[in-house]
Design brief:
The chain is α+β, with helices and mostly antiparallel strands. It folds into two domains: about 90 residues, 2-Layer Sandwich (GMP Synthetase, Chain A, domain 3), CATH 3.30.300; about 35 residues. The chain has a three-stranded mixed beta sheet with strand order 1-2-3. The termini are far apart. The mean pLDDT is about 85.
């Protein structure tokens, strides 16, 4: 019995997994909500830390971003920075197609600053090699290999 044939939309072409995932996401999550989340993620890169504590992108609709601020004083202060903020957000998320910003007093979500990542600790060797190490290096017959091992040992001992 022959198998039923079904027409595939991408027959002959590969489709990236990310494209398939976005197609499914956009079926359930409104585009404005996704763009707002991307703007909120970019907020910490675009805005200085002292402003992140008093302002937060709260809503996006029809290309207008509403930014909540903690009080009227900050609302007044940020009104002078509106065009600068808009330009920075447009560069950070060009796909959002921001038309403008609106400032409102409202609840501000303060995202904690990321904790600094400590530098990795790289263990070194003592500056002077042990007698057994010297003996092992001297036992290497190939002069090029012996020289390479000695050079590597010197480099590790200089840390």
């Amino acid at each position: 019995m022959p198998r039923p044939t079904t027409k595939r939309d991408n027959h002959g072409r590969a489709t990236r997994a990310s494209d398939l995932a976005w197609r499914e996401i956009l079926k359930t999550v409104p585009r404005d909500r996704i763009e707002l989340a991307q703007l909120q993620n970019a907020w910490s890169r675009v805005v200085p830390r002292h402003l992140q504590e008093v302002a937060w992108p709260a809503w996006l609709g029809n290309g207008r971003l509403v930014i909540h601020v903690t009080d009227n004083q900050w609302l007044h202060e940020l009104s002078y920075l509106r065009q600068d903020l808009l330009a920075k957000l447009r560069r950070a998320c060009p796909h959002a197609k921001l038309q403008g910003l609106r400032l409102r007093v409202g609840e501000v979500e303060v995202v904690p600053a990321p904790e600094p990542v400590p530098d990795p600790v790289i263990a070194g060797l003592p500056r002077e090699p042990e007698r057994s190490t010297i003996a092992a290096m001297e036992a290497i017959e190939d002069p090029q290999l012996r020289n390479a091992v000695a050079t590597a040992r010197l480099a590790l001992g200089s840390r």
